[in-house]
Amino acid sequence: MSLGVLVIEAGEHSGTRITARLAMEQDRDVYAVPGNVTNKNAWGPNTLIKQGAKLTATWEDVWEDLPSEVREQLEAEMGVGGGNESNSVTAASLFSESRLSDHERMVLERLRQDEAMQLDELIEQLEGQLGSSEIFTALFELELAGRVRQMPGKNYVRAM
């Protein structure tokens, strides 16, 4: 059914941990977004990384790890290809343009096109409104949609 599993949050005895264990047993790739060690829901991804899950910070980490035949199939289904940079960004966006979730909107509103914002600063600005895992998820979805780009040093800018 799937090539792998991406774990963003998981408590020690959660269903997500069971899913990740089953994926490993079935030789599926397991990707994990690291979390703050003081957050109980970061225990799962942090432990999975220690057990060999692939550390994942952006959608590109997953996209680049896909087998080439799978990437080519997805590009063909999306009607893009040809290998140039603009097509590869479009091809990686597996979802059509859709309305933004509230979390995505909150994150996108704080980002600018002309100035990169460091991830820690973004988390600090949204403290009390969104948890770090919600921010990671929103950034991941916004990157997939091509609305946000990650720059070196975990800096983010609007792509529009």
Describe this structure in words.
The protein has 160 residues and is of the alpha/beta class. It folds into 3 domains: 4-56, no CATH class; 63-92; 102-158, Arc Repressor Mutant, subunit A (Orthogonal Bundle). It is 46% helix and 12% strand. The chain is built from 8 helices and 6 strands. The protein has helices at residues 15-25, 43-50, 59-65, 68-78, 85-92, 102-110, 119-125, 132-144; strands at residues 4-7, 29-32, 54-55, 117-118, 148-151, 155-158. The strands form 2 sheets. A 3-stranded parallel beta sheet has the order 1-2-3, with helices on one face. It has a 3-stranded antiparallel beta sheet with strand order 4-6-5. The protein is globular, with a radius of gyration of 16 Å.
Short note summarizing the structure:
Helix content is 46%, strand content 12%. It is built from eight helices and six strands.
